[in-house]
Automatic annotation (TrEMBL):
Classification via InterPro entries: Ald_DH/histidinol_DH (IPR016161), Ald_DH_C (IPR016163), Ald_DH_N (IPR016162), Aldehyde_DH_dom (IPR015590)
Pfam families: Aldedh
Phylogenetic lineage: Eukaryota, Sar, Stramenopiles, Ochrophyta, Bacillariophyta
Residue stretches making up the Aldehyde dehydrogenase domain: 289-509
Compositionally biased region (Acidic residues): 145-154
Region annotated Disordered, chain positions: 47-83, 145-164, 201-227, 499-544
Protein name: Aldehyde dehydrogenase domain-containing protein
An example Gene Ontology molecular-function term: oxidoreductase activity, acting on the aldehyde or oxo group of donors, NAD or NADP as acceptor
SUPFAM superfamilies attached to this UniProt entry: ALDH-like
Superkingdom to which the source organism belongs: Eukaryota
Bias (Low complexity): 47-81
Length: 731
């Protein structure tokens, strides 16, 4: 689709962007730099070791991510075994919130818009406090077990240790970046995406109250049956050739009418693959979407319209699931924070105060196991929104023991029939497709991007890359390995805060091909305090240095098991496969690589394909067909980490429809598309923002992501100029 738009022209002309930045920055030199004070507190969070992680079986390491114990259920009799006081308190909360359901659904759209705008303003107001809270938690994470080898004075007090760690966190590690991204930045981006959709609903002449229409649509012809581990996924009716019907691909982001979106995208775009044959049926109105979605749940569980129970993740703190349930699905909520993030509950209550005051949202009376169990078993809950592992989900739905689960699955008699919208994690492949534009520069660029993605949040991310797949005889294989290890050594690391990840990290180091990559000494000497010097030892107490495990084998039982386990820590594994005629038949190789991932790797959440522009152009139709019909993943990245979808409420987030290893159900999709199977995020092979934002210098990264957070909370030209000034000029 050709778009004669100034935003697009600027976005495709880097020199114009630089000129644009310099002019606007000169007009507003402050650029809203979002410099904020870092606060510390002596109030320790003693609950961030509540969860445990199972690293001995094929389930992801995030087994207790929701705070629901994997051994909490003593019998299938459920609530009768709960402490009466907690069960009663949860019951009271659910009943109060449920009574507000009809009122919320009938609330005028402009009132909902005002509530969401106030939430965004509250996030801006309490951003510093939110960041300081998580900083304090990370500072305390290892104080008890810290040998203080770097402190000359053995009598150093706790306050001295906090002061030292504050300097380390601010000046070296990526902890501050992680805090910003998993909290205020993502919440701002997500909320503003929903806000744009809601505002479009009340505008006049907008196609009968529908959300923003797609930028463009195209139809991709029918494809063969998709199976995963031998089980057929798609159940559509075949035509006489054994192919399924065509599907519609809708380009959703960026909007050609938004200058800030076009500049932010810089050639990147987000698409959704919809199992719809008639483009007139592609989207729904807000009212029809809410009515249809709730009607399906009513039929499935035969309950009165109630509320959603959200069991929040521990690796993430932005309550995006709550915003989705309220403003997209139209349901009131009870929100149970994860014990890891318990300290931030008072701040979240300040941010969500408009909803709490009106009774549309309440927090669970506790983050405990008992509260979680009471919530998921309450008859007033219409849907459970759960982030964790499949093992924990099986205990919620099918029973406590493996024997009980197997029996109930065989009889199809779940102990809990409440529908669950779940996100369970995955072993995520990054597939490299050789082509004519691969060279030393592009190898370095994509290796750096991969390491940046892996090290983000210390690997405590469900879409973190884990397995690199490429041909055994690829001419750049050795160079790519060297560059991955090089950028691992340059990354300053962050705080490993998730329970159980240390055990997994230690276990993976025992692999005979595992290489622990130390922090290398940069040529540039640092100034100031001795403890701020970059050095070969880990910066943070308890830090996990990245691991690279080469030459994984599909014939080795040990490696087979590792490929079925979500690492949940900073590790990358190399899986080189046999492939012939890759240069002349790249799509044949890609099909083999995708099939290798489908067959041997756990989960169906995300996949990333690194492919050069010439190869894409030469094989455009066939590549499109493979992406749409032959990749059973809910999130597909083309030259870009699909994790960015998590902050984009306009598109769908979740596992591939029809699979269950990585969860089921749909989150986000604020533009209300029907029958969405997957989200595809595309970027050019050489993408300027990739290198600009994925910097290894901690101070610059802190500056960039501070400005990034400001832009996401308040997206406009001025805040974007501040972001670009940090990205390209370092100011």
């Amino acid at each position: 689709m050709v778009r004669n738009n100034a935003a697009v022209v600027i976005a495709t002309r880097p020199f114009l962007v630089s000129f644009y930045i310099l002019i606007l920055f000169a007009l507003n030199p402050s650029g809203n730099p979002a410099v904020f004070a870092i606060m510390s507190t002596n109030n320790r969070n003693t609950n961030n070791t509540t969860n445990t992680t199972n690293t001995t079986n094929s389930t992801p390491a995030s087994a207790s991510a929701s705070g629901y114990s994997t051994s909490s259920r003593t019998s299938s009799s459920s609530s009768s075994s709960l402490p009466l006081k907690m069960a009663t308190r949860v019951d009271q909360v659910v009943k109060r919130v449920s009574q507000k359901g009809d009122e919320w659904r009938s609330l005028p759209m402009d009132t909902k818009i005002k509530l969401l705008e106030q939430i965004i303003q509250n996030t801006i107001q309490y951003r510093n406090e939110w960041v300081a809270c998580h900083q304090s938690n990370l500072l305390f994470a290892h104080i008890d077990n810290d040998d203080d080898d770097d402190d000359d004075d053995p009598s150093s007090s706790t306050n001295d240790k906090i002061t030292r760690r504050t300097r380390l966190m601010n000046n070296h590690g990526y902890a501050m970046v992680d805090i910003l991204v998993r909290g205020p930045a993502t919440l701002g981006s997500y909320a503003n995406g929903i806000l744009d959709s809601l505002k479009h609903n009340i505008q006049k002449n907008n196609n009968d109250g529908r959300p923003p229409p797609p930028v463009s649509t195209r139809t991709v012809g029918g494809g063969p049956r998709i199976s995963r581990h031998g089980v057929v996924i798609e159940d559509d009716v075949e035509n006489e050739n054994g192919f399924y019907p065509e599907k519609i691909v809708a380009t959703v982001w960026p909007s050609p009418w938004s200058l800030t979106q076009s500049l932010e995208a810089f050639g990147m775009k987000a698409e959704m693959v919809c199992d719809v044959q008639d483009s007139a049926m592609l989207q729904q109105t807000h009212d029809s979407y809410v009515q249809e979605h709730n009607s399906k749940l009513l039929v499935s569980n035969n309950k009165n319209v109630g509320c959603s129970a959200i069991l929040a993740a521990g690796n993430f703190d932005a309550p995006t699931d709550l915003l989705c349930e309220l403003f997209i699905k139209g349901r009131v909520c009870v929100y149970k924070a994860n014990p890891i993030n318990e300290a931030s509950i008072p701040i979240l209550k300040k941010i969500l105060k408009p909803l709490l005051d009106l009774g549309y949202v309440e927090f669970s009376p506790s983050t405990s196991i008992e509260a979680a169990q009471a919530l998921v078993e309450h008859q007033g809950i219409q849907e459970i929104v759960f982030t964790g592992s499949k093992a924990t989900l099986d205990r919620i739905v099918w029973g406590n023991s493996k024997e009980e689960q197997d029996q109930n699955k065989a009889k199809n008699t779940p102990i809990n029939t409440t529908p669950v919208c779940s996100e369970l994690g995955s072993v995520n492949p990054w597939i490299i497709v050789p082509g004519p534009q691969w060279n030393k520069r592009s190898v370095d660029d994509h290796a750096r991007a991969m390491v940046f993605a892996k090290m983000s949040n210390n690997g405590h991310i469900c879409v973190s890359p884990q397995v690199i797949i490429y041909p055994k005889d690829w001419k750049f294989r050795q160079l790519f390995r060297e560059k991955v290890e090089h950028w691992m050594s340059k990354h300053p690391g962050t705080v490993a805060f998730y329970p159980g990840s240390h055990e997994t990290h230690q276990s993976l180091q025992q692999h005979p091909n595992a290489k622990l990559v130390p922090y290398g000494n940069p040529k540039k000497k640092s100034r100031g305090h001795d403890e701020e010097k970059q050095q070969s030892e880990p910066i943070f107490p308890g830090e996990q240095r990245p691991l690279f495990i080469g030459d994984m084998s599909l014939e080795n039982e040990r490696d087979q098991n590792l490929l079925r386990q979500e690492a949940w820590c900073p590790v990358l594994m190399e899986l080189a496969i046999d492939a012939e005629d890759v240069d002349t038949k790249p799509m044949e190789y890609l099909r083999k690589a995708v099939d290798t991932a489908n067959t041997n790797l756990y989960g169906s959440l995300s996949i990333n394909i690194l492919i050069d522009n010439k190869t894409m152009r030469r094989n455009k139709k066939e590549l499109d067909h493979i992406i749409v019909h032959e990749m059973p993943y809910g999130l597909v990245g083309i030259n870009v980490w699909p994790c960015y979808v998590n902050s984009m409420s306009q598109v769908r987030w979740g596992a591939f429809v029809g699979t269950d290893e990585s969860g089921s159900g749909t989150l986000a999709n604020a533009h209300l598309y029907r029958n969405v199977e997957k989200t595809v995020l595309r970027a050019p092979f050489r993408h300027l923002p990739r290198k600009a934002i994925q910097v290894m210098d901690p101070k610059k990264a802190h500056l960039v992501f501070s400005r990034f957070t400001t832009f996401k909370l308040k997206p406009n030209i001025i805040t974007q100029v501040g972001l670009f000034a940090a990205l390209f000029l370092g100011i």
